[in-house]
Specification:
- The chain is mostly helical and 79 residues long.
- It contains 3 helices and no strands.
- Helix 1 runs antiparallel to helix 2 and helix 1 crosses helix 3.
- Pfam families: PP-binding.
- InterPro entries: ACP-like_sf (IPR036736), PP-bd_ACP (IPR009081).
- This is Phosphopantetheine-binding protein.
Length: 79
């Protein structure tokens, strides 16, 4: 079962894409254009808000942001 935090991120993504009713945990958010270069920074802030973890922009690993599963593993596993 997904954490409450990752469900918050899923809702954040879906709120920006009303044509969608779900995002699969393994769907690549960048390749599917659910997150683009303009919304990436907003995504980072949404993750920070939902997880309580400050993300260092100087050390971002893009692989941590590819899918909801990778976001959950990187930022919500210890929450």
């Amino acid at each position: 079962m997904a954490s409450a935090g990752i469900e918050e991120i899923r809702s954040w993504i879906l709120s920006r894409h009303p044509e969608r009713d779900d995002v699969a945990a393994d769907e690549n958010l960048i390749e599917s254009r659910l997150v683009d270069s303009l919304s990436f920074v907003e995504l980072v802030y949404a993750i920070e808000g939902a997880s309580g973890v400050e993300i260092d922009f100087d050390n971002i690993d893009i692989n941590d942001f590819q899918t909801l599963s990778s976001i959950e593993k990187a930022f919500f596993a210890a929450v």
